[in-house]
Every structure is written in C-alpha cells, then in structure tokens.
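Possible regression after last week's pipeline update?

I re-ran a chain I had predicted before the update to compare outputs. Posting the input and the new output here so someone can diff against the archived version. Not blocking, just want to make sure nothing changed silently.
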Amino acid sequence: MSFRSLLLGPVIAVVAAFAVCPEAAAASAPRLLINQDFPDPDVVKTAAGYFAFSTGTGTTRIPFATAPAPEGPWRVTGDALAAVPAWAKPDGGFWAPDVTQLADGTYVLYFAAAQTADGEMCLGAATGKKPEGPYTPAGDRPLVCVPGDHGDIDPQTFVDADGSRYLLYKSDGVATGPPSAIWVQKLKADGRTLDGPRTELLRADLTAEKAIVEAPSVVKTPSRYVLFYSADTFQSTGYHTCYATAPTLGGAFVKADAQFLSTDLLGGKVDAPGGADVVDGHIFFHGWLGGGRIARGLYELPITFPGDVPKLG
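New output (post-update):
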C-alpha cells in the first residue's frame, strides 16, 4: 500500500466498550470494478497506472489487475507471486496481499500464508522489480509469526511523512482468550526487517464486531491518523467497515461512533463490504457477488472529508 496523505483535521468520536456501532447516513451507489472473485483488495498507484492485488483464487496465488485510472477499466492479468515460500503450505492459500515500493525502487509484496509446521497463518514478504512482479519470496522463515496470536494475517504497510516504514496486521485471537486485535510494527528501510517491539492499536471490544477486527488501512492527515478496519465475520451480511483516529500512529486510537461501510448503508447494493483501501481520493473494498457466498468482487466509491469526517460519494 502506498503512502496516503489527505488534508484533514481531527475527528472527535467516542465509543463505549461493548456498544453497538450505530450507522451513518446512506452513501451513493458504489461502482463495481471487477465482477469476479477478487477479495481483500490492495490498490497501488504508480507512474505506469494503477495495480490491484487480491487474496488467492483457484490456482492463482496472488491475482493482480491493472487499470489506467481508479474507475477502470480494470483487467485481471496474472499471478504476482512467483513461487511458494519455503515455510508455507503450497495448498494453504495466500491471503490479503499488500504491495509497497522501497526508497531504492524495489517493490515488496506482503501476504499471509499457512505455516507448514503447524498450519497457523503467518506473514511473509517477497520482492520484485516491477509492481506486477514477479515477486520472489524473501528468506526461509515468516516475517511475522507471533506465538500466542493464533495466526497473523492482513498485512498492510504505511510510510509516514518522515519516511519511517510500518507494517500493520491482525492477530486472530481466540474465543476463550484475547479477541482479535490490530497491531503496528516498525520496519527497517529494507522493508523485511522488524525494528523494535510492536504496538497494539485496537481490539475487538464492541458488540457489533463479534470479536473480530481486521483489514487495517491507515490514512495520514495533518493532525490525525485515520485507521479504517473491517469487523464481524466476513461471511456475514453484518460484515462492515469502521474507522478510528489517533494523534500518533502509536495511538491511542478512538473508534468512531458510526459504521462507515455496511450492507444497509449502501442500500443493499453491496453485500458485506470490507477490506477497505483508501487511495487517491477513492475507497476500494470487496463485497459478495450474486447474493451468494462464492465470490467477492471489487467495488469503489469516491471519498471526501468535509468537516474532517470521512464521507462517501
């Protein structure tokens, strides 16, 4: 995910723990960009146009698509990941990719995959010379695989104004222990070396979240950091996107008092919108296609921030 910066002011919002997140006003109709399975989208703007990456589908490890503009037309063209990492199960799936470019021009692809040893999800990295790849797995071990997390997924990178590079991700949590949480971990300039300890940004503590928060994506403003995230079970129509804000990337993040994307807010035009990514004045997200639970397509809406509050359409 490339650096995002918008001219916004602070967002004032307070949510009580275990409250049900109320819904905001309805948004305009979303645009369907990719009418086939393309879940957990990551969109990257480059000098050559726009690239999008998704969770693996079928035999394709990391599908990618290209477009000349955010609105499209989008064309799914191939597989970005050249090989299975040494530590990962070949048939375990490759989830929620994220692509960023380093200062030296190298592109890094982050992804989640199942460890061969125990099947738990961990985060890996691969490098390439072009945004579309091919990406070659880096190292013979995962980048992030924290004991006790019960799986780490949904990597998303963020580069701050001073050039510092960070990796956000979700720890799965367990029903009888700590719920899922979103973390931030500083990276060194190579994008593949952890730098210091991680910090918890928020966890699933609202009734409507159903013990799940995931798919983090950060937008920087002049005075705030806006963290978009998905909540609830992704198979559920109640799956939705909210946001939280903080004065620094390390927190403390305060959850907004309204859902931002939901099936109802979108007038039923998108079923279970989530996996949001904000790029170049657009918010991209997935939703179930055809009223079933087989494929999730890629959708888009313009996003603005009048009065320092995110607004769709």
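Follow-up from reviewer: compared with the archived run. Residues 12 and 256 are 8 Å apart (CA to CA). Marking as no regression found.
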